[in-house]
Design the sequence.
C-alpha cells in the first residue's frame, strides 16, 4: 500500500529510542487512516516508530482506521484532489501517487 506521511523530518534520538524498544521485543503501534476502496493510507501517528521499524527491517505493528460509507474514496480521487492543489512543494508526492496508481492498475 501507498503510505502518505505528513512529517518528513525525524528526531534521531526518538527513532533510536523506538529502535531499542523494537529490538527488545516491544511493538509500538502505528496508526493509519484509509478511505473506502483506496489503497492509500495516511499515517496519523507513529512517524518516528515507522522510521525505526524501517531502519531495522521489522514489519510494523499497525492499527488501521477505515472509513465505512456508501461514498467510496478511490486512489484516483485522492490523486485528482492533490493535482488540483499542485504546487512546487507537492511535486514529489504527486509523482509517487501517479506511480502508485500505475502499479495498482497492473
Sequence:
Amino acid at each position: 500500500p501507498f503510505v502518505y506521511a505528513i512529517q518528513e523530518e525525524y528526531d534521531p534520538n526518538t527513532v533510536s529510542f523506538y529502535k531499542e524498544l523494537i529490538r527488545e521485543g516491544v511493538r509500538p503501534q502505528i496508526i493509519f487512516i484509509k478511505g473506502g476502496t483506496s489503497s492509500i493510507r495516511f499515517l496519523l501517528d507513529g512517524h518516528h516508530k515507522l522510521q525505526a521499524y524501517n531502519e531495522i527491517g521489522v514489519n510494523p505493528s499497525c492499527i488501521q482506521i477505515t472509513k465505512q460509507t456508501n461514498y467510496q474514496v478511490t486512489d484516483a480521487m485522492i490523486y485528482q484532489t492533490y493535482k488540483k492543489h499542485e504546487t512546487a512543494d507537492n511535486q514529489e508526492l504527486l509523482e509517487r501517487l501517479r506511480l502508485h496508481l500505475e502499479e495498482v492498475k497492473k
